[in-house]
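Hi V.,

Quick status before I head out on leave. The structure for the redesign project is tokenized and pasted below; the design run finished overnight.
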């Protein structure tokens, strides 16, 4: 996506790293660069606002649930695979973790 206006930072770069920006997981210099872009680019500002609203909604609705360590590990592993450009099989990691948790709970009964 591009708004058609020239920017120091390209819209596609901002959108590719939007969650890192939202989660404050990037260096301060990069954050400043993204802030400048978002301030001057209304399509990116709109996308930022939408993703920020979704993040707040998820936190409000699901923020009290503890995430099982194995699920977190699997999700983070998939994220790292995707970031590295490795081929990632299409499967539902969350559904697999739930099935494993249900199986483990059944063994405890």
């Amino acid at each position: 996506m591009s708004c058609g206006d020239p920017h120091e930072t390209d819209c596609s770069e901002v959108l590719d790293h939007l969650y890192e920006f939202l989660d404050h997981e990037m260096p301060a210099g990069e954050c400043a660069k993204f802030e400048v872009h978002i301030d001057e680019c209304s399509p990116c500002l709109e996308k930022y606002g939408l993703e920020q609203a979704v993040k707040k909604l998820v936190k409000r609705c699901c923020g009290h649930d503890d995430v099982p360590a194995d699920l977190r590990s699997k999700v983070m592993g998939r994220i790292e695979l995707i970031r590295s450009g490795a081929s990632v099989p299409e499967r539902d990691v969350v559904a697999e973790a739930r099935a494993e948790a249900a199986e483990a709970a059944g063994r405890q009964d």
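Above is the designed sequence. The two ends are 52 Å apart (CA to CA).

G. will cover questions while I'm gone.

Best,
W.
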